Amino acid sequence: MLSFLSQGRRGSGWGMALPALLLLLAFFVIPVAGLLSRSVTEPQPGLQNYETLLGSFTYIRIFLNTFLVSGVVTLITALIAFPVAWALAIMSPRIASVLFAVILLSMWTNLLARTYAWMVLLQQTGLVNKLLMGLGLTSQPLQLTNNLIGVTIGMVYIMLPFMILPLYGVIRKIDPAILQAAALCGATKGQALRRVLLPLAAPGIASGALMVFVMSLGYFVTPSLLGGTSNMMVAELIVQQVQSLVNWGMGGAAAFILLVVTLALYALQLRLFDAEAR
Amino acid sequence: MLLDFDKLGLWKWILSAICALMALFLLLPILFIVALSFGNSRWLIFPPPGWTLKWYHDLFADPRWLSAAFTSAKIALVVMVLSVALGLLASLALTRGTFRGRAVLRAFFLTPMVLPVVIIAVALYAAFLRLGLNGTFVGFVIAHLIVALPFSVITISGALETFDPSIEDAAILCGASPWEARFRVTLPAISHGLFSAAIFSFLISWDEVVLAIFMASPTLQTLPVKVWTTLRQDLTPVIAAASTLLVGLTAILMIVAALIRKGKSR
């Protein structure tokens, strides 16, 4: 319904946004802009920080690591999340609500606590290695921490809820009649899955995948605890440059590259999926 | 057919099995830490040879853990209050305002959520070094507020969108002033949104690691910073004990949030 009394005349109401706006300007926009500007002013004006970053294999490898891990994490979470979201959308609400509680509990459990659990589980003498050796899958304990395998496992664990929840929302809205129609027209289950359900769920998969990918790109805690220093990702590079080497120019340049990639993907997400929702 | 669970045949069991495995995958690490925190193995052998409360004893005997927890709670409470207040005002502007550029403003309010926290952390660290806010309570609050605010805006504006503004109009027609209508009609109606925003904001501040690492000083640190620095030295079971308490707090807050939602749907 149209409300006219509480809204007042056209153009009003922006004053209420002012406190939050000022806070974000002073402590978000200006600091971030300051950091980025240091990438072209320190140690001397010019683009040499970007030349160093994009010109040496050491740094290129860090970016490749980041994209590789984010890509693999996105793929694995999508593969797990699709069947789970599908089942959640159609199973009895009671069981679904139990599963949701598990998903939310894991999502809201302290990040460090979850990463700590995986550090212990994946260490040489840890439970995962014991299990693998007990099952006869390996005779030597595998090196699962201080490398990208550990980072990937830890990140899949953290990102899974962020893929399941949006996917669930999309599958829930699909009209079952469409799939009944597919069945009536003689489609087998495999055909209906491939040619009806998956295409209809595709926007959810794409939107969840984009979100997980973007979040993974900038992740710091899990990669630095499970990955070790020889397998750095971009976020660790930024922290290392700023905190240990006090090289604000390089830190700012790496931050700028990460920021551009993130915002570009975010804009893509808004364009692809928000336009549809409206 | 594919959207009717009972007509899936064999697939029903495959999907159920995947769900069960996923639940185990998500739940086991959490249960594992809880079990470890009571185990008596210094080297985190599982299953532990025996049970003990030693790690909790160590945790509470060390004043640094307690003071870190106290600092965390103080910061999270202040962040919670400010985040709900600013979030409410911003949400009112976004849902009730008639000015142009509301969609842009909304996207802007959400950017701190999208941007990698590490960028915000490093940028604020540089700014705070200049302003002398590093390692201060105010610095912590501002940093945590920046990342909590988007969640507050999403939750509260979501609640406002489902509330029909014409009810507010009715109150005004009955003689209430616009602000009185807002306080006595709209606020109670969206209280579930305000509570959820408060819980989210509290948890975000309470759990924040990356910003906190940069804001911390040797004399002022939050619980996650203490866990982080300890974790970098070794995997002592004391962390398992601290983590267990954190899991317990999360579970309690989640139950509270669920009860609020239930109360709302009634």
Automatic annotation (TrEMBL), chain A:
Keyword Iron set for record: no
**Record-level GO BP terms:** transmembrane transport
A Gene Ontology cellular component where this protein is annotated is: plasma membrane
Name the coiled-coil region(s).
none
Q: Tell me the SUPFAM superfamilies matching this sequence.
A: MetI-like
What keywords sit in the KW lines?
A: Cell membrane, Membrane, Transmembrane, Transmembrane helix, Transport
Q: How does it sit in the membrane?
A: Multi-pass membrane protein
Q: Where is this protein localized, as stated in its record?
A: Cell membrane
Q: Which residues form the ABC transmembrane type-1 domain?
A: 63-269
Record keyword Membrane present = yes
Which InterPro entries does its entry note? Answer: MetI-like, MetI-like_sf
Predominant localisation class: membrane
According to the record, the segments passing through the membrane are 62-88, 95-113, 148-171, 196-221, 248-268
The record's listing under Gene3D superfamilies reads:
MetI-like
Q: Which family does it belong to?
A: Belongs to the binding-protein-dependent transport system permease family. CysTW subfamily.
State what protein this is by name: Putative spermidine/putrescine transport system permease protein
Q: Which organism is it from?
A: Paracoccus laeviglucosivorans
Lineage of source species: Bacteria, Pseudomonadati, Pseudomonadota, Alphaproteobacteria, Rhodobacterales
TrEMBL record, chain B:
Location(s), subcellular: Cell inner membrane; Cell membrane
- Keywords on this record? Cell inner membrane, Cell membrane, Membrane, Transmembrane, Transmembrane helix, Transport
Q: Does the keyword Transmembrane helix apply?
A: yes
Protein known as: Putative spermidine/putrescine transport system permease protein
- Membrane-spanning intervals of the chain: 12-38, 75-95, 107-131, 137-160, 194-215, 235-260
The record's similarity note reads: Belongs to the binding-protein-dependent transport system permease family.
Q: Which GO terms describe its biological process?
A: transmembrane transport
- Which ranges carry the ABC transmembrane type-1 domain? 69-257
Matches recorded under Pfam families:
BPD_transp_1 (PF00528)
Q: Name one GO cellular component term.
A: plasma membrane
Give the membrane topology, semicolon-separated if more than one.
Multi-pass membrane protein
- Domain of life, source organism: Bacteria
